[in-house]
Amino acid sequence: MAEVRIALGGISLSYHLPRVLVFALNGFTEEFLFRGALQTRLALLTGDGWGLVLTSLIFGVMHVGAAAALLGGDFLAGMALCVASHAPAGLLFGLTALRTRSLISPTVAHIALNLASVAWPGA
């Protein structure tokens, strides 16, 4: 894990700190926009279920650019990756927001998931 590599001198804290801050801010911002604004508005138009599904799909599609870049520019593979990974994460964040009627829980979960990607070996 990253903590072990930092402790052993393999990675400096100055390398990870900016990433941690950006990922935490990103998690807060995305939850505010997707669950706080988009999902609530779509739910008013289509009902809670469809609002959740549509917001989750849009959340996944929004990440296509980064996924395609990771896959050598392959847009279709990036879309498949996002629908298979980011959309289900958005679905879970959205369900959490619906159940708690708050953005705190999905924001904490989103930030934790983002921070886990920092600590993942090779990140």
From TrEMBL:
InterPro entries to which the protein is assigned, alphabetical: Rce1/LyrA-like_dom
Keyword Lipid biosynthesis: no
GO molecular function terms attached to this record: peptidase activity
Protein name per its UniProtKB record: Membrane protease YdiL (CAAX protease family)
Biological-process GO terms, alphabetical: proteolysis
Keyword Transmembrane helix part of the UniProt annotation: yes
Transmembrane segments: 49-69, 75-98
Domain CAAX prenyl protease 2/Lysostaphin resistance protein A-like: 20-115
Keywords recorded for this protein, A-Z: Hydrolase, Membrane, Protease, Transmembrane, Transmembrane helix
Domain of life from the UniProt record: Bacteria
